[in-house]
Amino acid sequence: HLGGKKFCTTRGTLTQREPDSMLAAMFSGRHTICQDPNTGYVFVDRDGKHFRHILNWLRDGEVPILKDHEYSELLREAEYFQLLGLIDGIKTSLIKRKVDEEMGTELTRIDIIKCIQSEKVRLRGVNLSGLDLSKLCPGDREKHTTKAKENIE
Fold it and tell me: What was the pLDDT predicted at 137?
């Protein structure tokens, strides 16, 4: 019983993936836990909103795909339970998301024109195949096309 929500799992799930975590310590028998004598439920005084993500991570090691504010909430719970692998996974996911957002910016025609007109252009990892760039540079097309080809190579 966690924050008003009931979760059903095994001691093994709670202790195997992160044996040095506080969560594992709580259920290893080393600590006294608040257990209902009639039902066997254990009460943990934490917000249960993201505990399902913690359980799933303990089961399969996969960090869920969440919104940034949800990652912050899950990170707080992972830090409380000292789940170092989950903490690292969340931080890695946030860094990857930031890099993907920065790298995912698409080039516009204006960006291409500015690149072609500049001294040196390096378009590594940019796929220009299938694009007709001939209309981007009115005037001396041959000069710009040659310059663009030299700079791309």
Answer: 58
Domain shared by 116 and 59, yes or no: no
- Phi and psi at 4, nearest 5°, equal 90, -5
- Same domain? 76 vs 129: no
Would 25 be classed as within a structural domain?
yes
Do 115 and 92 fall into the same domain?
no
Name the nearest CA neighbour of 20 among 76, 74, 85: 85
Locus of tokens 């996969």: 62
The phi, psi pair for 48, rounded to 5°, reads -85, 0
Query: Is 130 a residue whose pLDDT tops 90?
Result: no
What is the token pair recorded at 50? 């993201």
53-80: per-residue pLDDT in tens? 999 999 999 999 999 999 999 999 999 9
Q: How far apart are CA 73 and CA 55, in angstroms?
A: 15
The answer as to whether 3 is a domain residue is: no
Decide: helix, strand or coil at residue 46: coil
